[in-house]
Specification:
By secondary structure, chain A is an alpha+beta fold. Chain A is about 30% helix and about 45% strand. Chain A folds into 2 domains: about 5-90, F0F1 ATP synthase delta/epsilon subunit, N-terminal (ATP Synthase, domain 1, Sandwich), CATH 2.60.15.10; about 90-135, Single alpha-helices involved in coiled-coils or other helix-helix interfaces. Chain A has 2 helices and 8 strands; from the N terminus they run ββββββββαα. Chain B is built from 5 helices and 6 strands. Chain B has helices at about 5-60, 95-110, 120-130, 145-160, 215-289; strands at about 80-85, 115-120, 135-140, 170-180, 180-190, 210. The chains are: A alpha+beta, B alpha/beta. The interface of A and B includes residues 10, 32, 43, 70 and 83 of A.
Chain lengths: ~140, ~290
């Protein structure tokens, strides 16, 4: 069996199909840890956590911040169904920063829902990281 | 006979009304295009989520999931009916017809205990005034629904269902059939109809690695389908609302045009009559000399 040369990557959120591209490599924030996918990967179904996703096309890497959902991996394609997905260049750094501060405060005061604060903290961190990546690269 | 000045004033009034309805029509048309686009954007997700779920359903025992348990609808059951209306009027029969359908539903299902979940100001005001039992209400987003709204509704719905406060959940909304046509649908949200999961072809199934277990993924994705169904309904309803408003405002513009024509005609007649009278007066005055 010959291995497929590329992966057809599809990232969809409820609002839109955000990525529809042919890529060489993808790294996904799975619920049990990050995993990388190259063409010819075994079929797999994984849950996502909050984190960074990147895909490589030739020598160029693209970063996204994603949160929750499922990823379906096939030898020649990857389909990501995410609740939230944002490209690095779409991220509003100021907003993410203030969300980070707010989440930290909420966690410190303790009278807030800790789990929710934790999730928003993770989201903010992931957004900031992704945005930072895009900036240092460009 | 009304005086010339009165008629002129009325024409001016109708004209300014027409300008407003014309502007509202344009705005509705622009909004309609946007909401149709959003409906299209939601399609890929809809396709994929159903595919993943039906694949999973073949692997786990779907009947064990609380959202899929199928109690029979019997007398005395509690039914939660979610009614999707708009926040504002000015859109023809859009709100009236959905409210009528919901009221009919309540009357027809008198044997069950129907509580309402009201989305949109119009429906909320109507049912609240009449004192219907209401479980939750959400307003002020029907024109531009976001996924978070759908999630909030889904949370309410799922918690009502799993805590046995509702044995069945239905969603009543305006489906966007075309610009000229909206259709009222009342869909069963929970328990989920099994038909959703019978689409997979079992022979074409792939052996996946699961991370974590299929059961846990299934449990995680299933509520998402509820969210997503609500989200699609919100989008459909928003598009239908914009379409209804566009048509209603188009009609209003046409009607005011007709009124203006009729008024102009009477105005001309009155003016003509006045002129004729004056001429007669002058002529008869000259004759008398």
């Amino acid at each position: 069996m010959t291995l497929p040369a590329h992966l057809a990557l599809e990232i969809v959120t409820p609002d839109r199909a955000i990525v529809h591209d042919s890529v060489d490599e993808v790294q996904v924030p799975g619920s049990e840890g990050y995993f990388g996918v190259l063409p010819g990967h075994t079929p797999m179904l994984a849950m996502l956590q909050v984190g960074q996703l990147w895909y490589r096309k030739g020598s160029e890497k693209f970063y996204l911040s994603v949160a929750f959902g499922v990823a379906e991996v096939m030898p020649d394609r990857v389909i990501i169904l995410a609740d939230i997905a944002e490209r690095a260049e779409e991220i509003d750094v100021d907003r993410a920063q203030s969300a980070l501060n707010r989440a930290e405060q909420n966690m410190a005061t303790r009278d807030h829902d800790l789990e929710r604060a934790r999730v928003s903290l993770l989201k903010a961190i992931s957004r900031l990281n992704v945005a930072h990546r895009a900036r240092t690269r460009g | 006979m009304p005086s010339l000045i009165d008629i002129r004033r009325r024409i001016r009034a109708v004209k300014s009304t027409q300008q407003i309805t014309k502007a509202m029509k344009m705005v509705a048309a622009a909004n309609l295009r946007r909401s149709q686009e959003r409906m299209l954007n939601a399609r890929p997700m809809a396709r994929q989520i159903v595919r993943v779920l039906s694949d999973l359903a073949a692997r786990v025992d779907p009947s064990t999931h609380p959202l899929l348990a199928q109690p029979d609808l019997s007398d005395g059951d509690q039914v939660l009916l979610i009614v999707l209306t708009a926040d504002k009027g000015m859109c023809g029969g859009f709100n009236a017809s959905i409210i009528r359908a919901a009221s009919n539903y309540i009357v027809e299902h008198r044997a069950q205990e129907v509580t309402l979940g009201l989305i949109g100001r119009r429906g909320r005001d109507f049912f609240r005034r009449r004192g219907y039992p209401t479980r939750f209400e959400l307003v002020n987003f029907t024109r531009k629904p976001c996924y978070e709204h759908a999630q909030a509704i889904a949370r309410e719905v799922i918690s009502a269902f799993t805590s046995r406060k509702a044995d069945r959940v239905f969603l009543a909304y305006n489906e966007f059939k075309s610009v000229l046509q909206q259709r009222i649908v009342i869909n069963q949200l929970l328990p989920m109809p099994k038909a959703h999961f019978d689409q997979g072809d079992p022979t074409a199934m792939v052996d996946y690695l699961y991370e974590p277990s299929p059961q846990r993924i299934f449990d995680e994705v299933l509520p998402r389908l509820v969210e997503f169904e609500i989200f699609t309904a919100l989008l459909e309803s928003a598009a239908a609302q914009n379409a209804a408003q566009m048509v209603a405002m188009d009609n209003a513009t046409k009607n005011s045009g007709e009124v203006i024509d009729a008024l102009t005609l009477t105005m001309n007649k009155v003016r003509q009559a006045a002129i004729t009278r004056e001429i007669i007066e002058v002529v008869s005055g000259a004759e008398a000399l």
